[in-house]
Amino acid sequence: MEKIKVEREEEIKICPICKKEFRGMGAISRKDNETEICSECGTNEALAEFFGSF
To answer: Hey, which of 40, 41, 42, 46 would disulfide with 17, CB 3.0 to 4.6 Å?
Structure first.
């Protein structure tokens, strides 16, 4: 069986919180439930909410 490699162009996005570039799926900010942020900032928001400092 022949394997076919598919390449996709991924949009480079800038996280509005940390200003770093990211690709692919980020996270939706818990602050407004619509702004896309990077995964790291999404994790930080989730942990802050969990520990009560959001």
So the answer is: 41
Residues 6+ apart with CB under 8 A from 45: 27, 29, 30, 31, 37, 54
Give the span between the Cα atoms of 53 and 10, in whole angstroms.
Answer: 34
Check if the beta carbon of residue 25 is closer than 8 Å to that of residue 38: no
pLDDT digits (tens, 9 = 90+) for 4-48: 776 777 899 999 999 999 999 999 999 999 999 999 999 999 999
Does the global pTM surpass 0.70?
yes
What single DSSP character describes residue 39? H
